[in-house]
């Protein structure tokens, strides 16, 4: 092997200093993540790309730019080149756990392309824990069956919640205040008629 071929092989296998990006990024399932890759001057008008797979030589392209700054969207992935800033961003949306993999941000040039590996990790979405009470009274928190379509479960009704937590305590408070004001006065003599 002669020197230029070794240099090209080095660029394809280990990434290039002409392009750089984060070594690793993390996202959350059903969320989105954005990766920003930078490149050296003179590569502004070249096509930028994002491919998936640890092996550079058979890494299938996920998305490519057109050589302009216009955003390109394909499925859940978009790419946009900012030539003035000499960077491009790749956004992955509606992330799935199986999106975790090695990706490459790269530049399509004559000869071997320039690329930089990025390890993408997708974490599971946080789950909501339901208390034992909610589990035992599940019918109060579930969607109404088809025959009751249009009716909300008891605890799901806004009116019921207002009644229990606002109207009833307010009514009881006012009733207590009225009874307190109208209570009979006690005197030390024990005869309320004499004290009037």
TrEMBL record:
Every Immunoglobulin domain range: 22-123
InterPro entries the record matches: CD300_family_receptors, Ig-like_dom_sf, Ig-like_fold, Ig_sub, Ig_V-set
Bilayer-spanning residue ranges: 158-181
Keywords, in A-Z order: Cell membrane, Disulfide bond, Immunity, Immunoglobulin domain, Membrane, Receptor, Signal, Transmembrane, Transmembrane helix
SUPFAM superfamilies cross-referenced by the UniProt entry: Immunoglobulin
Pfam families linked: V-set
Gene Ontology CC terms: plasma membrane
Localization, UniProt: Cell membrane
Keyword Membrane: yes
Stretch forming the signal peptide: 1-18
GO MF annotation terms: transmembrane signaling receptor activity
An example Gene Ontology biological process: immune system process
Membrane topology: Single-pass type I membrane protein
PANTHER family: CMRF35-LIKE MOLECULE 1, POLYMERIC-IMMUNOGLOBULIN RECEPTOR
Similarity comment: Belongs to the CD300 family.
Protein name in UniProt: Immunoglobulin domain-containing protein
Organism classification: Eukaryota, Metazoa, Chordata, Craniata, Vertebrata
């Amino acid at each position: 092997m002669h020197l230029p071929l070794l240099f090209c092989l080095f660029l394809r296998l280990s990434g290039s200093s002409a392009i750089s990006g984060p070594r690793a990024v993390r996202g959350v399932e059903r969320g989105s993540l954005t990766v920003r890759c930078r490149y050296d001057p003179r590569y502004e008008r070249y096509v930028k790309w994002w491919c998936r797979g640890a092996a550079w030589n058979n890494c299938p392209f996920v998305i490519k730019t057109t050589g302009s700054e216009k955003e390109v969207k394909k499925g859940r992935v978009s790419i946009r080149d900012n030539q003035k800033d000499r960077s491009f961003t790749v956004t992955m949306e509606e992330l799935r756990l199986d999106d975790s993999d090695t990706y490459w941000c790269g530049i399509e040039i004559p000869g071997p392309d320039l690329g930089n590996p990025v390890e993408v990790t997708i974490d599971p979405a946080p789950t909501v824990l339901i208390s034992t009470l909610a589990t035992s009274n599940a019918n109060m928190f579930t969607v109404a069956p088809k025959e009751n379509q249009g009716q909300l479960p008891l605890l799901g009704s806004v009116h019921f919640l207002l009644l229990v937590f606002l109207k009833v305590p307010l009514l009881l408070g006012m009733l207590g205040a009225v009874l307190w004001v109208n209570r009979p006065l006690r005197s030390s003599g024990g005869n309320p008629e004499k004290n009037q």
